[in-house]
Write a structure and sequence with these properties.
This is Bacterial extracellular solute-binding protein. It comes from Novipirellula herctigrandis. With 447 residues, this protein is α+β, with helices and mostly antiparallel strands. It has 2 domains: 165 residues, Periplasmic binding protein-like II (D-Maltodextrin-Binding Protein, domain 2, 3-Layer(aba) Sandwich); 188 residues, Periplasmic binding protein-like II (D-Maltodextrin-Binding Protein, domain 2), CATH 3.40.190. It has 17 helices and 14 strands. The strands form 4 sheets. Strands 1, 2, 3, 4, 7 and 12 form a 6-stranded mixed β-sheet that branches. The protein has a 4-stranded mixed β-sheet with strand order 9-10-8-11, with helices on one face. It has a two-stranded antiparallel sheet with strand order 5-6. Helix 8 runs parallel beside helix 10 and helix 15 packs antiparallel against helix 16. The chain starts with a helix and ends in a 5-residue tail after the last helix.
Length: 447
């Protein structure tokens, strides 16, 4: 076992290191500790370890112009390095548009900020640089331990670290009234119908219906997840998944506000138009509005799922400023001033404990929701949230079918049978072996 001095020395070496290409690592065979990193084109030269404040760091961000501006403002308060941020407009209902552009854009930048379920596409295109276990450990020494759910669910892919988690927002039970013990989704249905008189909602607008359905399913389906282990056949049309959608459709009939976004739900909670339901804060929590936050029904079970659109940051394999890129990744993840960043960019949340010494950590939380979230993200077992090739097509197919079911246009059973058939067609088009490999990697296994 390494000694503490050896561990500390290794961390110090990593912090001062410049990422090297594989070719350069082989050329530098005399070096005792080489750090893997950016892949350069033949004519490109490595950046020196010293800071470069004259050359903008190129970032591709799947998000909004407001997100980009929030990152710039917060970064300027802690570092003089200029940022050049290219934004790919994100949409939960049209993921195919930005996903088609993402791999190309990743080849012309230093750092990529993207939804976690795009990782298979980026890794397949060889546009991301994995993070070695030693590098990840060194980051944790400096910034605090990544909580179990984002560590296992969004940082790792194919048995290695490929990204730093930036956000992992989860829905909870929100209410301005006392919440009884709700151990099942049937209990929740009764609470909405009787005690809240329908003044309730959950995220069901277009783009949100699929993930809300999956969040319900992960606490209701006892084993397996979405595809059979043996032949990668979709299992989403099986009885247990149909039961989840049927229960969901029954509860939606009680909701007076209709199918809302998380922002609309939070605003309704704040104004008193909504008394309770499912969601998360999308703005600062007002001190004069008392909102309780608690686990969803079945929330104490042993596994969970992260939102496929949870943001992560990776190093592009085509980057030119690797030392500076590492510094930015550290800061985005939990560096100095990152609490200001979380207030300015809503998709970014706490994903770590805060380091107080090498052996002691404490939760880092600014508000009651963040404190609750940190507790939930400590759950170690996660299931994949569709990180497949052509992931957006799988997601949009499910979102459309769930939405039509909730609108009364199709029954739960035929809706999910339709999803299974379309998922099979996507799999056959992409290649079954490729998808099986991506699914295995998403579960932390080497394909």
């Amino acid at each position: 076992m390494p000694t503490q001095n050896h561990r500390s020395n290794h961390v110090a070496e990593y912090r001062n290191a410049t990422f090297l290409t594989r070719r350069e690592m082989l050329a530098a065979a005399g070096a005792a500790l080489a750090v893997s990193g950016c892949r350069s084109e033949p004519e490109a030269s490595l950046e020196p370890t010293a800071k470069r404040s004259d050359v903008p760091l190129k970032i591709v961000l799947v998000g909004t112009d407001e997100d980009a501006e929030g990152i710039r403002r917060a970064w300027m308060s802690v570092d003089e390095q200029p940022l050049e941020i290219s934004v790919l407009a994100a949409s939960r209902t049209e993921g195919g548009e930005w996903m088609k552009k993402l791999t190309t854009a990743a080849r012309a930048c230093d750092v990529v900020i993207y939804p976690m379920f795009a990782v298979s596409e980026l890794m397949q295109a060889e546009t991301l640089v994995p993070i070695s276990d030693d590098q990840f450990e060194a980051m944790e020494e400096e910034l605090g331990s990544v909580l179990s759910a984002p560590r296992n669910g969004s940082a790792r892919y194919g048995g290695q670290y490929v990204a730093m988690p930036l956000g992992a927002r989860l829905p909870g039970l929100l209410s301005t009234r006392e919440v009884p013990e709700l151990t099942s989704w049937a209990d929740y249905d009764g609470w909405v119908a009787s005690e809240l008189d329908g003044k309730a909602a959950e995220p069901l607008a277009a783009g949100w219906a699929a993930v809300m359905y999956l969040w319900r399913a992960v606490s209701s389906v006892p084993q397996g997840w979405l595809f059979s282990r043996e032949d990668f056949r979709p299992t989403i049309d099986s009885d247990e998944y149909v039961d989840v959608l049927e229960q969901m459709a029954n509860t939606v009939q009680h909701y007076k506000p209709g199918r809302l976004t998380p922002e609309e739900i939070w605003e309704g909670i704040r104004t008193g138009d909504i008394a309770g339901g499912i969601g998360f804060p999308t703005s600062e929590m007002d001190s004069d509005v008392q909102v309780t936050i608690s686990d969803l029904p079945g929330g104490q079970r042993v596994r969970m799922m992260l939102d496929p659109f949870s943001p992560v940051v990776s190093l592009s394999s085509y980057c030119r400023q690797s030392a500076t890129s590492k510094r930015l990744m550290n800061w985005l993840s939990a560096g100095e001033g990152s609490q200001l960043l979380r207030r300015q960019v809503s998709m970014i949340t706490a994903t770590r404990t805060k380091t107080t010494s090498v052996l002691a950590t404490e939760p880092q939380a600014d508000n009651p929701y963040e404190a609750w979230l940190i507790g939930r993200l400590g759950m170690p077992v996660t299931v994949p949230s569709l990180p497949l090739l052509a992931a957006s097509e799988y997601y949009e197919t499910l979102d459309d079918a769930v939405g039509r079911t909730l609108d009364g246009k199709i029954g739960p059973k035929p809706a999910l049978a339709e999803v299974a058939e379309k998922w099979q067609a996507i799999t056959q088009r992409v290649g079954k072996e490729k998808q099986q490999s991506a699914w295995r990697r998403a579960q932390g296994l080497r394909a």
